[in-house]
Request: fold
Amino acid sequence: MLERLTRFLRGPIASASIRTTGVLGLRLLFQAGHLIVLARLLDPSQFGLLAAVMASAMLLGKLATFGTQYPLLRNTAQCGHTAASVLSYAMPTTLTVGLILLSIFLPAACWLVPNQPDFGIWPLFAIATAELLTAPLITLFAMAQLGHSRIASSQLIQTLPLGLRFLATAVLFVAQPDQPLLLYATLYLGTSAITLTAVLCTKVANPPSIKAWRMPRLTELKEAASFGVMDVATAAPSEIDKAIAPYLLTPNLSGLYAVAGRTVGALTLPVSAMMLSALPRLFRSAKPGRDDLLLRYTILFSLAYSIVLATALWWLGPFIGQLFGPGYTSSTEVLRVFCFAVPAMALRVVANNTLISLSKPIKRASCELLGVAALIISATALTQSFGAPGLALSYVISQWTITISGLWVIKRTRT
Reply:
């Protein structure tokens, strides 16, 4: 067993994970820096409302591709096909669905968002356009690179807008404008547009010409739709709590909750790096026994990493709260509750990616929706009793529900 583990650590997945972790290390740096500077730029009530809008837009944005990125990943990984054949229908599908979602999101958001002096139609439009149109297209090109096992390149494509946003937020923090939220929304959209333009101009993904675009066939649409449902269901447990926080908590407490939640979510990136490195090989592999061995090693690594991370996060909680500014020092209690979700979050990444490789999108979506139901049912009661820590506890329950059910489905599928 020890010899096999040593070979695994020296193998292609481990080396690819190290390279990808380097790229994702930049992503973690940009996310953490962006989060800290943005929290210092806005007060907790503004930050909480902004986090709710962004979470809602990100969640809908998962539906914009309609799941076409997964057939794109599978075809390029399994058959070595060029990405152009799938992109020819994935790109117009993404733009069509994205525009439809944008037309639905804007009126709904204007109705739901409270009347804030700095939060008008423009921040909603800018954030929604970035998440529903430009970000899904960037995801397609990143998946095309991932299918060809260019894992670090794939992550660089998705990391570039985060880096640009970090720089833009830092400039705003130094300049201290009168309306930081309006300028931040403008730069949020601008960074996504710059990234998309750079990818298209450098022809990283070699997209097909507009003349080659076509609508998907019925069989392609049905297959992609199942992955699309899975993608939305996967994102929902990580975003819904931030979206509903302003309605369950006071504006100030929702900001504290959002800061703690985003901090914990960003720290599971090394597990994501490992699973991204393994995913093309899982798609190509035809030896179930070997997949079982790989699954055991990834579970072992994820569990060990997450326990160490949760322990460190518990003790560093007071210091982390101070990083975001004096208005966020009371987020320590919420952050420590989130520590109990860290092992589940790491194992959930392993389970979700394994179910993708097994072509079980509906079963994966079912596990995620079970977690969403657990989150919504427990959130109302726990928040009324314990406030922000209660909402964090409902998140812990949701993550463990998804993880246990996902691993159970994998065990049933492989036996």
Q: What stands out?
A: The chain has one domain: 2-414. Residues 288-323 form the longest helix (36 residues). The CA atoms of residues 265 and 345 lie 8 Å apart. The mean pLDDT is 79.
